[in-house]
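Check out one such.
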Amino acid sequence: MNTISMASYRSSQKLNPLSLLAQLSSRQANGCLQISSGSVSWSIYLEQGKLIYASDSVDPFERLDRHLRLKSREIPTLVSAVRVQVRLLFESDLESQSSQYPDYQAICWLVNQQYLNSAQAATLIEELAEEVVRSLLSVREGTYQLIPQDQFQDVPKFCRIELRTLVERCHEQLRRQPSSESTNVVPQPHPDSSTQPASPTKLELIQQPTPTPNPKSPISNVSPPTNNSIPKKSKSTYTIACIDDSTTVLNAINSFLDDKSFSVVMINDPVRALMQVVRIKPDLILLDVEMPNLDGYELCSLLRKHSLFKTTPIIMVTGNTGFLDRAKAKLVRASGYLTKPFNQSELLKMVFKHLS
């Protein structure tokens, strides 16, 4: 069936999304309905009036990751390493705008790699669509247009959701919510509930007595090497990414690298901040081994698979000193291994060894 043409409004006007979606459903419309309100946009992909997929511009990969994390309780294949890999592969497409629907392509990839089956993908898509449509129904002013989507014809379709039924269900859910919650126009990013306290092993390291004024620091504080011991550098400033779930450790490393030669980016969540690492393209990565959602070995292995980080120095930072731990670091092609507690001199020596 050909796409039924309808008026498109590029200047902001009053909108009734409920009526608009009902009209598209009854007309068995094809294409992508794009609605914009303020800084937020929604994309509703339709085929003969049925919903194929829905997304919006408010951190779609964070939404996808949140739903995948919930499903991992019943689908054991959706381990944290797989969820991180999805973001590595597809979230950069969103930022570069090289693909119109990278979050949907991410779901297709999960099915193709057998992390999800088709039925699970269909359920996931419906749950995502419900969240997106609920936020869309709160819009009262904006612009819209229906755009033909020839490229979408070539991708797998996991479900065809009755748009009218979905919209009515979302409308009923909004009606039951307190008015203060149902009047928000812009969907707010959900807080990440994955952050957890440091592991007991890390706490023990932090509480070790050291000859430093700050007894909680896991890194012993001694005099830094003299300027003569620092090798000549080919760059004026090096960007160093520090990934650790402990704020104490991050602050200690940041203070040790407090020099005009370094620009330190502190990251306390490897899953949410992964694309930050992709964006900044650091010259060196200091990577903690023991983190609650994704251990450093898994993350190092995933980074090595990315074209940007095949040769980037990655230093594993840990309190474990056993042979097995060093063997794991070697297997994931880590560049070095720094054992806690370490002092400023040891940290700088390791950093410059791999930057020189």
Q: What stands out?
A: DSSP finds 13 helices and eleven strands in the chain.
